[in-house]
Design brief:
This protein is an alpha/beta fold. The chain has 7 helices and 7 strands.
């Protein structure tokens, strides 16, 4: 069985760990700079958003199959810090990058984030529109279709129910 490494990164105190606990509240390892959760064939790395741990977390960002950058659209600095996190990834080719808004209300910043994703080839999700379970189903679909040369259009059709 293939193991997939999903990395949750982003500014501190936006709710990354809370989001992960809604999926599975059984952490394999709780560390200062990373929490590790295993769920089915997924291993989640929940990275500490504090700048003082940035050197420790580069490895996780570069090893992950899917990078999930979490922010809250009511905390502007959490969105503005995303580009510096993504700069830590040496080779983005082959990685799926997702921006996930953990705030449950629509804001202007969310629209800016959607536009940012569109311009950079990233994906964008809002937890007030999609549940944690639906989000994970979409990520699984993304991984399953990844070996297909038309994975983007197939994934989009599956999500949009065409």
């Amino acid at each position: 069985m293939t193991k997939y490494y999903l990395v949750l990164g982003g500014y501190c105190k936006v709710g990354k760990t809370t989001f992960l606990k809604k999926i599975k509240n059984d952490f394999l390892d709780e560390g200062i700079h990373v929490n590790v959760v295993k769920w089915n064939n997924f291993i989640f790395y929940d990275l500490n958003g504090d700048l003082k741990y940035r050197n420790y977390i580069k490895k996780y960002l570069n090893d992950g199959n899917i990078i999930i950058m979490c922010y809250r659209s009511d905390i502007e600095i959490s969105f503005n810090s995303i580009s510096s996190w993504l700069e830590e990834i040496k080779d983005k080719k082959g990685k799926k990058i997702i921006l996930l808004d953990l705030y449950n209300k629509r804001t202007e910043l969310r629209d800016e984030a959607s536009f940012y994703c569109l311009n950079n080839g990233y994906f964008h999700y809002d937890l007030d529109i999609i549940s944690e379970k639906e989000f994970l189903e979409n990520v699984i679909s993304m991984l399953e279709l990844n070996n297909n040369s038309n994975w983007w259009s197939d994934w989009w059709k599956k999500i949009c129910c065409f």
